[in-house]
Design goal:
This protein has 5 helices and 7 strands, in the order βααβββαβαββα. The chain is of the alpha+beta class and 168 residues long. Strand 2 and strand 3 form a beta hairpin.
Length: 168
């Protein structure tokens, strides 16, 4: 891994961030999401949309979009600006997601990743995701298969739960 990114500000993405989101998305994926897809996720109550920003100038460096389903949090989209990859930004975003959703013991986490994306698969595995199946021909640009990955719910230990209850 190369150098670590300096301090990041993590915050909820807003509609005003759409231009920066689109720039990163187009640089990251052969079949990028549309602006309207992002806009609908940003305002959907069952979604969590996080951005990693450079505090000194508010530049968006990476983002994560996740939707809540009955039994899982579905990681829909994760991308980091190509100039800032391999510096822990995606890991930081996912760690924040796990913090925000910890204690929701009913829901695990799932995602699809290209079977050829070794770097992303390794990252997800270090975060506790495991391969659970394959979606054949999932990606429309080249009919590449997707590896379905799953992570069990993040459970807070009892002491953390007690502290949280006491602070309410």
């Amino acid at each position: 891994m190369s150098e670590r990114e300096p301090a990041l500000e993590l915050r909820k993405l807003e509609l005003r961030d759409l231009n920066a989101i689109e720039r990163i998305e187009r640089a990251s994926y052969p079949t990028p999401w549309s602006r309207s897809m992002f806009a609908s996720e940003l305002v959907k109550p069952s979604s969590i949309s996080l951005g990693a920003f450079r505090p000194e100038n508010d530049d968006l460096l990476g983002y994560l979009i996740i939707s809540r389903y009955v039994d899982a949090w579905h990681v829909m989209n994760v991308a980091v600006d190509p100039a800032h990859r391999r510096r822990g930004i995606a890991r930081t975003l996912l760690a924040r997601l796990f913090e925000e959703t910890a204690g929701d013991g009913r829901r695990g986490y799932t995602l699809e990743v290209r079977v050829s994306n070794d770097g992303a698969i390794k990252l997800y595995e270090t975060l506790g995701f495991r391969g659970r199946g394959v979606r054949r021909g999932y990606y429309t640009d080249n009919r590449e298969d997707a590896l379905i990955m799953w992570k069990d719910p993040v459970v807070l230990d009892f002491a953390e739960n007690d502290v949280q209850r006491a602070s309410r």
